[in-house]
Specification:
The protein is an all-beta fold and 106 residues long. 0% of the residues lie in helices and 59% in strands.
Length: 106
């Protein structure tokens, strides 16, 4: 059985924890909304059940530390956002887990 948790506020806006799943029951995404806007911690998953990305939003903008993963589950990118923009050191990894590159954003 597929269950989606999709609460809303009295204005009908997305509000609170939302969870959705693939047809086979594996998680697709889960995260928080505040009055219709992404706000707080979020996770997305590949259809194989492995984590695709995780991080926080503040009023719909990515903010803080984020990680992205390859389909095989190994780390792909990691770095920090401020107001939706990359900030500071970001690292990129090959699907085998070896460091590919580093880039610094101002």
């Amino acid at each position: 059985m597929k269950i989606n948790i999709t609460p809303t506020n009295k204005e009908g806006q997305r509000h609170g924890l939302w969870e959705n799943y693939y047809d086979d029951g594996k998680p697709w995404y889960k995260g928080n909304y505040l009055n219709g806007n992404e706000d707080g911690y979020w996770e997305w998953y590949y259809d194989n059940g492995k984590l695709l990305s995780k991080g926080c939003y503040i009023n719909t903008q990515q903010d803080g530390y984020w990680e992205y993963y390859h389909y095989n589950g190994n780390l792909y990118f990691k770095g920090k956002y401020i107001n939706g923009n990359e900030d500071g050191l970001w690292e990129c990894y090959h699907s085998n887990g070896k460091l590919e590159s580093k880039e610094y954003f101002i």
